Structure formats: C-alpha cells, structure tokens
Amino acid sequence: MHVIAVASQKGGVGKTTISLNLGLALGRAGNRALILELDAQGSLGLSLGLADRARPGVAELLTGAERLESVLLRTREPELQVLTVGRVDPTTVAGFEDALARGPVLPSVLARLSPDFDIVVVDCPAGLGKVTTRALEVATHALLPLQAEPLALRSIGQLLAVIDRVRAEKNPQLSLLGMVLSMFDRQASASLDVAETLWTKFPDGIILDTVIPRDEAFLEASLRGAPLLLMQKRPPPLARVFDQLANDVLVRLDPTSPDDDDGPISLLL
C-alpha cells in the first residue's frame, strides 16, 4: 500500500484541495483509495460539506471510542473512502496532536488498512510540526504542494530538510514523490518567476508536470461542499487537472521501463 503524505511548510497552498481532488481522481482511475485527514482544523470535512466536527474519525480512534470500521466514510465513488480527523475539541488540539505524534495508533491504523487499499492520501496540517513529521515517518512518499509565490520558494528547503532527517533517522523507505506547483497565476510576474526557477534550477524529475492554477472554481467548490468533479452535473474543465495529477502520481509510484524505441506509433495495422 502506498501512503502519500501531502505536506507543506505553510498554509493556504491548496493542500486540502489537492488531497481531496487527487484522492477522488485516483479512485476514478481504479485504485482503492482513502483520504486520511490529520489536520485538527478539519478542513477536509468542511470541504465535503460536513458540519464542523460532525463525524467521528481519527480523534475517536485515538481514545478508543470508535472502531476503524465505523469511522470510514464511503463516497459516491465506489473505490474511494474518507477518514476525517473527527471531533477534536479546539481547546485540546495540543493533546490530540501529541497523542497522534507519539502513540502507536497511526501506524496501527495504516497496517489494518493495508489489505483493503492501494493508496492512502494523507492530508497533513500546515507547517513542520509533530503531526506532519509523524505522517512522514509512516508514509512511503511525500507530495509537496508549492504555491507559486516567492516566499514559498524560499522556504521549501525547510521541508526538504525535514524529509531528509526523517528518512535518515526514522523511515528509510520514505521517498519524495515530487513537488506540484499550485495556485499558479500566469498573469502575475512573481508567479511566472517562481515557475521558471522551479523548472530550470531544480533537479530533473522533482517537479511534477501538472500545474494547479489559481482559480475561483476552487473556492466555489469548497462553498458547495464538493470536489470539483462533483460540483455540478457538468464538471468544470479545471477538474481534468486532477486526472492529470493522478496520472503523474501513478507513473511515479509504479514507473514502467521505457521502450527502446520511443518513436511514433502507426495507427494502421
């Protein structure tokens, strides 16, 4: 089972939006997928139109109040399920995060999920705190949304350093799946400069081909409590971006050997 930690050193980069829509796209592509929310703010549940802290989830698994089978949420997509963060009291977030980071519940839950899922997309909280670090300790891959703005570019080294430390000290199987440029605005010179720097200065292969643009459709989808693909009967063209992202991710998870001859293929037999 592949466990993809979607992590960012700062908030507001579209991390939850990417986790939600990528999970759905992976399920639609035939993968048994789960979106696992570890952010105590509960942004994933809110993006799905759930009332604040309405459903039990990870918090109840930590306390033993619920069984794993009872907190998994089925979705309209048969291959996709969701596990939200649960009912985290805002006054006890520090205790929740400490229990999640130090206790055995997270690796135990993932071990129990392994026979039933191919891919788990983990929506981490923003920042480089103990929950994000714990997620990286149990993940197989890290996917890093990078907002197309200068501050995000200057601070990405901090997250890469955390990944290197986790790999060296706790999880040698952790690999960097790549960075995905998010909230890209082709009309803004700063956004274009960040994109050019990523594509020309970073090592080949570290930046995914898919680019997530800045678009009001994301805000509208959140307000409606649905992923882009299910926002209306006729999905907006932007929804196809996540099919492309899912394809990028799947190729990197299970790369195939390139053919010796990569020339054109004739249509006629």
Automatic annotation (TrEMBL):
Highest taxon, organism lineage: Bacteria
Residues annotated as domain AAA: 1-175
Name this protein carries in UniProt: Chromosome partitioning protein ParA
Listed PANTHER family: COBYRINIC ACID AC-DIAMIDE SYNTHASE (PTHR13696:SF99), P-LOOP CONTAINING NUCLEOSIDE TRIPHOSPHATE HYDROLASE (PTHR13696)
InterPro entries, sorted: AAA_dom, DNA_Partitioning_ATPase, P-loop_NTPase
